[in-house]
Design goal:
By secondary structure, this protein is α/β, with parallel strands linked by helices. It has six helices and seven strands, in the order αβαβαβαββββαα. Helix content is 30%, strand content 24%. β6 and β7 form a beta hairpin. The longest helix has 16 residues. The structure holds inosinic acid.
Length: 216
């Protein structure tokens, strides 16, 4: 039975595993999927302890590896993502290494400090950057859907705002004249790389379930 058929044929709410251990990402997933007719599980619910090693060279390869590997731990469709920041002046770095930019035991704070140090004195055009988010949904080791989102901005001269996570306080989004760290979650999600990718995935999930999205 295909996943779409199994979604329609069972009576209880269908389950989807959100395969991320990053609390910032998890909050954004849950916010963007609010109102969907599914029950969302975390890795802890399926005893998915331990990280899948990211061996890929692109966001898509890494997201795919995580999604496929975690989907083999349960019978449920499993959504994984890989995301990061690409900075023009740094030739696209840190990219897939965004989480571990400062060192293997990196924290958001240390990553930001390293970024601001490297970007010190760089004029605005060179501060251009983008966040990228790649989502992959798999079941039983088979990929069902991939969605990508991105958003362009600039690396700010200094930290501003304490909302969000990761590099949000130094990602300046020109249309709003603020950093992502200054934006309320709904405002960030409306324009962010993850918000855009999740919106596409939301539409796919609803179509698969034969439901209509009242928000789109
Ligand atoms: P990974 O996808 O878990 O390998 O890590 C992605 C890293 O990119 C995060 O740990 C953050 O440092 C950064 N990142 C990804 N998305 C965002 C975002 O929405 N805001 C701020 N930083 C982000």
């Amino acid at each position: 039975m295909t996943w779409a058929k199994s979604l329609k044929s069972r009576s209880s709410r269908k389950k989807i595993v959100l395969a991320t251990s990053n609390p910032g990402k998890l909050r954004e997933f849950q916010r963007c999927f609010k109102g969907l007719p599914f029950e969302f599980l975390s890795l802890r619910d399926i005893r998915g302890n331990g990280d899948v090693e990211e061996k890929g060279t692109t966001f898509l390869e890494n997201a795919r590896q995580k999604s496929v590997a975690y989907s083999l731990l349960s019978e449920y469709p499993t959504l994984a993502e890989d995301s990061g920041l690409e900075v023009d002046y740094l030739d696209g770095a840190p990219g897939i290494f965004s989480a571990r930019f400062s060192d293997p035991g990196a924290t958001d704070e240390k990553n930001i400090r390293r970024m601001l140090r490297l970007m010190k004195g760089v004029p605005w055009p060179g501060r251009r950057a983008r966040f990228v988010c790649q989502l992959v949904l798999s079941q039983g080791g088979r990929v069902l859907k991939t969605c990508r989102g991105q958003v362009r901005g600039y690396i700010a001269q200094e930290k501003k705002g304490d909302l969000g996570f990761g590099y949000d306080p130094i990602f300046f989004y020109r249309p709003f004249g603020r950093t992502f760290g200054e934006l309320r979650p709904e405002t960030k999600n409306a324009v962010s790389h993850r918000g855009r990718a999740l919106k596409k995935m939301r539409i796919f999930l609803l179509r698969s379930a034969g439901a209509v999205d009242k928000r789109t």
